Amino acid sequence: MPTQIEKFNKMQLKEMPDIRPGDTIKVHQKIKEGDKERIQIFEGLVIARKHGKGISSTITVRKVIEGIGAERIFPVNSPAISKIEVVKSGKVRRSKLYYLRTAKGKKAKLKKKDFAQAIAEPEAQITQEAELIEAVEQPQEALPKKENL
User: Fold this and answer.
1) Which of 14-23, 62-71, 116-125, 135-144 has the lowest average pLDDT?
2) Where residue 66 sits, what CATH number does that domain have?
3) Which of 61, 58, 62 is nearest to 76 (CA)?
4) How far apart are CA 76 and CA 144, in angstroms?
5) Per its UniProt record, what Pfam families does this chain match (predicted)?
6) How many CB atoms lie within 10 A of CB 125?
7) Cα-trace Rg, the chain
8) Considering the entire predicted model, what is its pTM?
């Protein structure tokens, strides 16, 4: 039986996209100035995700502004975060990308993540396979004859 703290934490969890290190994201954060409230966007590369997927999970986002690196740590389930958008995904082999802090030039770039073949159109694949099977199963008479040289 879940305790009251577990119930409260479950209520506070937000529905967020799958954020991984290597993703370029836009974080929409609510900023309160006096009695006015506005939304500020911070776009950068996720270099770390900590504390799992629970209520206390955080992401470290890094961006470079005029040659100077700026990093911010965002609590994912904070009420100050209104939205997180994934702009693009990069191919990485590590869970923490701290090496990007000192990397310069080409080494500071991540490769684009390649996705497997789109499965959105399985009917087109089936028709192509059927055409190939028909072409192979045609009788030899229908094929043009080779002339001896």
Assistant:
1) 116-125
2) 2.30.30.790
3) 58
4) 66
5) Ribosomal_L19
6) 12
7) 26
8) 0.69
